[in-house]
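Recall the central idea of this unit: under ordinary conditions, the amino acid sequence of a chain determines the structure it adopts. In this exercise we apply that idea directly, starting from the sequence alone.
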Amino acid sequence: MIPRIDAELLLAGDSDVLAQVRDAARDVGFLTLHNTPIPTSDIAEVFEAYAAFFARPVAEKDAVNMARTQSNRGWGAGGSEQVDPDANPDYKQVFDCGFEMAGSDLPAYAPNQWPDVPADFRVVIENYYARALAFWPIYWWRLRGLLVKTQSISKRNLTSPWRFCAAIITPSGQAGRGRTISASPCTQIMAA
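Accordingly, the structure predicted from this sequence is:
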């Protein structure tokens, strides 16, 4: 089971929560944060925006199909991803967006693709992304101290919150990449 960590208690240095984070880093490799500075109403708005996008006709979503860009930006159709060539493809839809770096030729910093419909999709997602980036460094300093102290990660990988994010959250080096998945035909949506 993936541990569910109270972000406010983590920031306060609660010893029980710090132990949960240490165990998650050592034994599970993942954790989820709740009770963050992002209001639950804003998070609900993000889920609604993604649900509205994933419900659009394929022809509309295809206008922002990431298969045309050679980067992980935009919509990915069900069956478009396959990690193991000898296995079935993933039958989920995805929408990827992330940090853009003008002038970079690295696919990890490619321009985001935004659909025209739903009309407020881009604004909702960019606002959420900005809020998440705003509080990330605060939690990073708390995690950094804990992970170095428990030798869960080397100090070398912890020179900045963004390097840590790239090393831990996206090992492929695609720093700041956000992904939302819709497991069709289910309506369950997960933000990662």
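The CA atoms of residues 70 and 107 lie 7 Å apart.
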